[in-house]
Amino acid sequence: MNEKQIEHKLVVMVKSAGGIAPKFVSPGFAGMPDRLILLPDGHMAFAELKAPGKKPRPLQLSRHRLLRKLGYRVYVIDDVREIGGMLDELQAT
């Protein structure tokens, strides 16, 4: 399974949970996560999608740290089996 397939599955599962997962593009501020996760009741997070076994680049890790410092959840997902747990965790907070 490649990154695009994992990303598609994320979008489908978020939609089935009643939310949306728009692509996040940030011109002039490289390294931001791929998708916003927006769920009912104001639950929000960022998702970085990777091919299985791949890791975020140093700039991406720096952006993840910045977002977490600001109080946002950032998930790095490289396997479709991680999506359900991520959604459960996000909805429980």
Characterization of the model:
Helices cover 41% and strands 18% of the residues. By secondary structure, it is α+β, with helices and mostly antiparallel strands. Strands 1-2-3 form a three-stranded mixed beta sheet. The protein is globular and about 30 Å long. The relative contact order is 0.22. The model has no long low-confidence stretch (mean pLDDT 96).
Query: Distance between the terminal alpha carbons, to the nearest Å?
Result: 30 Å
Question: Whole-number average pLDDT?
Answer: 96
Gyration radius, rounded: 12 Å
Indicate the percent of residues in helices. 40-55%
Order of helices and strands: HEEHEH
| Count of DSSP H/I helices | 3
- Number of DSSP strand runs: 3
The strand order across the widest sheet is 1-2-3
Class by alpha and beta content: alpha+beta
The share of residues in extended strands comes to: 15-25%
In the predicted model, the low-confidence regions spanning at least 5 consecutive residues are none
For the sheet with most strands, the description reads: 3 strands, mixed
Global outline: globular
